Amino acid sequence: MSGYVVVGTQWGDEGKGKIVDVLASKMDYVVRFQGGNNAGHTVVVNGKKTILHLLPSGILSKNALCVIGPGVVVDPYVLLEEIALLKKNGLEVDHLRISDRAHLIMPYHIKLDALEESKLGNHKIGTTKRGIGPCYADKYTRIGLRVGDLKDYDYFKERLAQALSIKNEIITKVYGERPFDFDELANEFLKIKEALEPMIIDATALINKALADNKQVLFEGAQANMLDINYGSYPYVTSSSPTSGGVITGVGVAPKYLNNIIGVVKAYSTRVGEGPFTCEQLNADGDKLREAGGEYGATTGRPRRCGWLDLIVVRQACEINGLSDLVLTKIDVLSDFEKIPVCVGYMLDGKMIDTIPSTIAACERLKPVYKYFDGWQEDIAKIRSYDELPVNCKKYIEFIEEFTNTRISLISVGPDRENNIITHDLI
Ligand code: IMP
After folding, report:
1. What are the structural domains, with CATH classification, of the chain?
2. Ligand 1 in contact with 130 (CB < 6 A)?
3. At residue 211, does pLDDT exceed 90?
4. CA–CA separation, 202 vs 405, rounded Å?
5. Neighbours of 49 (CB within 10 A)
6. Which of 76, 328, 394, 405 has the smallest CB count inside 10 Å?
7. Residue 29 near residue 64, CB atoms below 8 Å
8. Separation of 315 CA from ligand 1 center, angstroms?
9. How confident is the model at residue 1 (pLDDT cuts 50, 70, 90)?
């Protein structure tokens, strides 16, 4: 089977970009299936660190055709900026395609994201303010604009007029802000149409043919199961399905093609934005994790909230995604700790539970039940073979496998491409 999926198993920022980068060189296609430029992955372009938000990480691998799938929301301004940035750095981007069914993030979505967040006050979600939620909301209320609409500009303008009449009413009457000008937007999108048109395709047909022809296809996830619209800590979630199920609906491919489903798990937990976070360490340990792990948001620069590994969350990710493998990242960050707690259950109102409650109120009452591991206090970044890892480090790794009933196939022990220990071939 030739369909590979990479997803996050926690709250995002697990290091998916690195593993996608490792796999992309062996792929014929790299496809994003959900989210938009709320994601952020750091890539090294000609020795220079660059942060990409919308383009698939695989864009650096010239042998793979990169596809922005139907389930993605596309901010065309960001897309054109990222393309220009790569070109400026001497990279070709003629291996990029965009689904005609992907939705466009319009300037009013970004405006509404900020307005809605400020209206929520203390209950704000802590979104990336990229217009993700408002764009998906319009998709489901059926007033969204799709990339393919640009091909028929008169039709696009008709749809824009309809959407704008609704959006401007909200912007002016609810928020007392200035409306968006139809002519201005229509003119800007004429330029966008010209720039994007050569890349717009029926991505579903393309990827189905590729899979039927046994080509290697990598579906690159953004965010993670705890930010999933259905299974995450709703409403503190993103507005899409970052789980493997999201590939099926977000690209339009059959489940039978997806049996290499790789979950990326960071050796501890981080979260950006608001919402419950049971193992959070608002103390010196949390600060130490943040500094050692460089835990600052790639998209917004916000310091990430840090805490211990929550295996209830990771086990849920294994179940929901049907993970065949785990990739463990940033285990080197834990090297300096004497004792390392791992959450193996929760106390809720005096009872031990091992699943995640659906309400925020209950999640906020959870107390973590920890199992404590001895640390290893030794630099492991140069180790390339599993056997050479310190015994205590191996105990930590093996417990994760046992608890989640999922094998760990790659262990990342440092940020560079080659800082990996491979225990099972992923391809
Ligand atoms: P939105 O996706 O911008 O609507 O934000 C909703 C929530 O998801 C916020 O808590 C964000 O911080 C979080 N979020 C969105 N994308 C990412 C990501 O790529 N990594 C980590 N958190 C994210």
Report:
1. 3-92+202-422 (3.90.170.10), 103-199 (1.10.300.10)
2. yes
3. yes
4. 38
5. 8
6. 405
7. yes
8. 21
9. low
